[in-house]
């Protein structure tokens, strides 16, 4: 104890009349060490969770780490601290879904994690998050809590679950407030029945404007055969540049007019305000799954340079799509499975 006593005396804690004895100080040091071990080793994920809730209540999302779908990126720097060059693309993809759709989220996590593993640059460029409103079911609350702890890729919005009653508005405005110094260049709203090829998305966005930009499959794509609505991007998946996301969060046009088909209404806000001068119609690289339906300007067979395919409503359509794009081609041989 001679060295410890010497340290206590240097700190002025071992002298007579000191309120803390050497033995007490040793216990405090050991206790602090145990607490640090528990927090940073036993429960490290507590420092990587992007959103959380207590019981069925919604909480605001935390700043996300890089691509929670990629295990290799768990300790990456947060977006707000990343240096960004003019040609860099950083995309936040918010996939709108429902708390109870566990199987779909598991499929999408796998699909996007494989893309990030095969092409690590995509893990740097894209963050994939699953978005839904307040969780009201006690069962969903418990199971979604496990997903958040394990994957950290869920954003729970403060809204009542809906498709066309303000969920998209709440998503954009929440993201703008949650990440005020974000390095994201674009925020994309996507459906959970859309397959996005991340590399094709990122490469196409590299040539797009960084401001006042609106990107997707423009509708109506055939004004002779469809009612001539003012132009908007299909809800399958469309992106806004970061400045437009911030504008949506504060604009009167979006705040007062939220109820209606969400993709049409997003276009409506921008059209009324004279925004989104830089528009990128990605047809025919973004399209609906055809199946047995007749082809149209928004629905056709698969093409090699696809960016996104929509209307993958069931597992058979997902399987057909994944086979076409050779997603399972890298399955290694093994005696443990026979496919």
Automatic annotation (TrEMBL):
Q: Which SUPFAM superfamilies match?
A: Nucleotide-diphospho-sugar transferases (SSF53448)
A single cellular component GO annotation? Golgi membrane
**This protein's pathway:** Protein modification; protein glycosylation
Where are its TM segments located?
20-42
Taxonomic superkingdom: Eukaryota
Alphabetically sorted, this entry's keywords are:
Glycosyltransferase, Golgi apparatus, Manganese, Membrane, Signal-anchor, Transferase, Transmembrane, Transmembrane helix
Q: Where in the cell is it found?
A: Golgi apparatus membrane
List the membrane topology term(s). Single-pass type II membrane protein
One of the entry's Gene Ontology molecular-function terms is:
hexosyltransferase activity
This entry's Enzyme Commission designation comes to 2.4.1.-
What the record says about family reads: Belongs to the glycosyltransferase 31 family.
PANTHER family recorded: BETA-1,3-N-ACETYLGLUCOSAMINYLTRANSFERASE (PTHR11214), HEXOSYLTRANSFERASE (PTHR11214:SF135)
Q: What is this protein called?
A: Hexosyltransferase
